[in-house]
Design a protein that fits this description.
Radius of gyration: 24 Å
Distance between the termini: 73 Å
Order of helices and strands: HEEEEH
Largest sheet: 4 strands, antiparallel
Structural class: alpha+beta
Shape: rod-shaped
Helix content: 40-55%
Number of helices: 2
CATH architecture: 2-Layer Sandwich
Strand order of the largest sheet: 1-2-3-4
Number of strands: 4
Length: 133
């Protein structure tokens, strides 16, 4: 009598698990970078929104000091404004313990003259690589 065996052998299951592991190993860094790129775009947008708020206030009052309603950041960055009567500097600092803590783009800054830059960024990165423009 012959019995037909149904199902998968242990070797077949181990091969499938190994293939899935290889795919995850290759895809995970790409997915993480994709998420980081989105978070960088979000903080750049927040900085631009704050700059617009400051410029509207300046148009009405001829000074930047005294502005209210500025954002403090999001889950990944803390935004700190340094405001004087005629100038401002917005700094988005990465929060420790988040996925952005070791990001290659570092911390973002935006001035009243529209100068965008990065602090503590990996050498060789252009501003457009991190700001998206």
């Amino acid at each position: 009598m012959r019995r037909s065996i149904r199902g998968f052998t242990l070797i077949e299951i181990m091969i499938v698990i190994a293939i899935i592991g290889i795919i995850i190993t290759i895809a995970a860094p790409s997915y993480t970078e994709y998420l980081k790129k989105g978070r960088r775009a979000e903080v750049a947008s927040l900085l631009n929104e704050q700059a617009q708020t400051l410029e509207r206030f300046y148009t009405r009052n001829n000074v930047y000091t005294g502005v209210t309603g500025l954002s403090t950041g999001n889950d990944f960055y803390t935004i700190t404004p340094t405001i004087a009567d005629q100038t401002y500097l917005l700094t988005a600092t990465r929060k420790a313990g988040t996925t952005m803590a070791g990001d290659k783009c570092g911390d973002f800054t935006l001035t009243n003259t529209g100068v965008r830059s990065m602090i503590n960024a990996t050498a060789g990165l252009a501003t457009k690589d991190c700001w998206g423009r």
